[in-house]
Amino acid sequence: MKRFIVLLLSLVVAVVFSDGALAAKKPSYEGYKKCGGCHRSQKESWLKTKHAKAFRSLKPGKAVKAKKLAKLDPEKDYTEDKDCVGCHVTGFKKSRGYSPKMPKTQAKYYNKVGCETCHGPGSVYRKAHSKAGKKFKADKMASPRKPLLKMGEILADYEEACNKCHMNYEGSPWKGAKEPYTPFTPDLDKKKYTFNYEEAIKDDKAMHEHFKLRGVYKGEPIFKLREEFQKTAKEPAPPDEEEEGGK
Hints:
The protein has helices at residues 2-24, 32-38, 40-46, 64-69, 82-85, 104-107, 115-119, 125-139, 147-150, 158-166, 190-193, 197-200, 226-231, and strands spanning 143-144, 217-218. The protein is an all-alpha fold and 247 residues long.
């Protein structure tokens, strides 16, 4: 009996240590390929959006009208311009995020405004999702959502992630605005460059379609539009791999 108790305590300590180790690691970026393995439907929907094509506009001969309006040279290559790249890729100047020096085979999973731009760097919480998904599949027991915050996941405050690019212009009402500012401001084109988060987050052409969630996680924090999106959400395609996750 004593031996059994010691063994049980050892297992409890191991589980606690394992979860704590996940939270203690510094999260880094992994690229949309890792996210898309489990979230296939979201990936396929997002690949059709403006965010997925954002890097192309930095290339010579692309977005000519917009560049001329902002007094930028439409024939110049801005794909390595440090003042421009950050808002057109995932994780620029962040841990294992996009770098112009990346091999092309790797860069293609980062040279877009991808999943982790909105949801946070996924190296730590992705593993937690896999673990929670397997648990839910085995016993239908949901895991608490809150610990994911310590693992680097953005769960509700997506507006700040959007503001970092869309509201980062000189004279912006957003308090976080700082140089280098975007030249694409409401003064340039009020209709096109005035950012309204409440409208933008519902735009499938900019974001991605929403799909049914299985209930792998429970509790706060909850994205305030989640219930609204779930009312019309479609059934997702099955994941590409065994590491299933979901929120």
